[in-house]
């Protein structure tokens, strides 16, 4: 069910983005009286799931959810319709329009994606505000995995600064390490401030970790106290439930040991895979001893009643306040994504190994339907779609823009044969990238 919810959110988000992107091309084409022959969500080689014709345009839904398209008369695009181009140009064709009109038609989709992202961020801030966990409020410090510990971090450390710059949000710490390459972090450990050097290989190691699977444990995450340890439910094949543990029981001791933090409890259980443990539980004011076996993953098969151990910061916005705040958030996300290109093309970080396809994109959506998360992710994907489409690769909008700018500057129009070969070359590049990204996803699935 969780996978189905993720995929459903991904497909809905993709559908919204594709339709509005193509609508940008469509609207500018209509403004300049260029004929639009087809308007499709998703691609339809061979057949369409749905189609109808109104006026000169066929509207439809294809069966391959890799994007969408509008087919404009007299334009060399993915349809590779060479028969039409062999005829004399008609006034309603794309190739007959002035260069500036063709330029606006081509950037229409990207323009809509950027505007859409800003509108969504404005709406989300107005509807939900902005809630986040301040870095200084992670009062129990962090649980650090082996990668974090390899640079000197310890469980319980509180990361407060990077290069002596205060970190406002917990969620920004790893992002800032990835994108801004700080040299050190300032950490509070047992009441004392210490400096920890960040090695130049740490970003490479972070990216390598992210390339190994869809669901990886975070490098750092807020440390959670274990007490009170109250049972709120059981897994399908719970060893503890079979042993007699009941919902509402409070676990006081495991093998006579009490644990202050959840990570300490989990680490202890990992040393006892498949063995039997003695649970001391309180039920209705009475203390009971219950013997329960652990499964092969060292789990009891219980869920714990959640408690809010942290104080979150919340900022609410009026509609007028949300407008500049939403635009600023969109610009920040845009700048952040552009910085990631440095990592992808860097021979040191080898960020290209972490590039993901449709599986990666679907996996970032939550396993429960959350409209707040859905719209935030849709806004960010809208920015990604805009940037990817404006890249100067033939077959993308950016490729057409590149040739149109050449025409405007030199007053020389590239030949139809050149454009045809450029389109074919661009499509080969795009399919190669698509195969590479989704091959990375397959490797993640195996990992």
Could you walk me through the main structural features you see in this protein, from its secondary elements to its overall organization?
- The chain folds into 3 domains: 1-128 and 374-446, no CATH class; 132-223 and 310-315, Pdz3 Domain (Roll); 230-304, PDZ domain (Pdz3 Domain).
- Helix 3 (99-128) packs antiparallel against helix 11.
- The protein contains 13 helices and 17 strands.
- 44% of the residues lie in helices and 19% in strands.
- The protein starts with a helix and ends with a helix.
- The strands form 6 sheets. It has a 4-stranded mixed sheet with strand order 2-3-1-4, covered by helices on one side. Strands 8-7-9-10 form a 4-stranded antiparallel sheet, covered by helices on one side. Strands 13-14-15 form a 3-stranded antiparallel sheet.
- It is of the alpha+beta class and 447 residues long.
- Pfam families: PDZ_6, Peptidase_M50.
- Keywords: Hydrolase, Membrane, Metal-binding, Metalloprotease, Protease, Transmembrane, Transmembrane helix, Zinc.
- This is Zinc metalloprotease.
Summarize the topology.
Elements lengths: L1 H30 L4 E8 L6 E5 L2 E5 L2 E9 L9 H4 L13 H30 L1 E3 L9 E3 L1 H4 L8 E5 L2 E2 L6 H8 L3 E6 L2 E6 L4 H9 L9 E3 L8 E4 L4 H5 L6 E5 L7 H9 L5 E8 L2 E8 L8 E3 L8 E3 L3 H26 L13 H6 L7 H20 L6 H14 L5 H31 L1
Parallel strand pairs: 1-3
Antiparallel strand pairs: 1-4, 2-3, 5-17, 6-11, 7-8, 7-9, 9-10, 12-16, 13-14, 14-15
Helix pairs in contact: 1-3, 1-11, 3-9, 3-11, 3-12, 9-11
Based on the model shown, name its key terms:
about 450 residues, alpha+beta, Pdz3 Domain, 3 domains, four-stranded mixed sheet, 13 helices, zinc, membrane, metalloendopeptidase activity, protease, Peptidase_M50
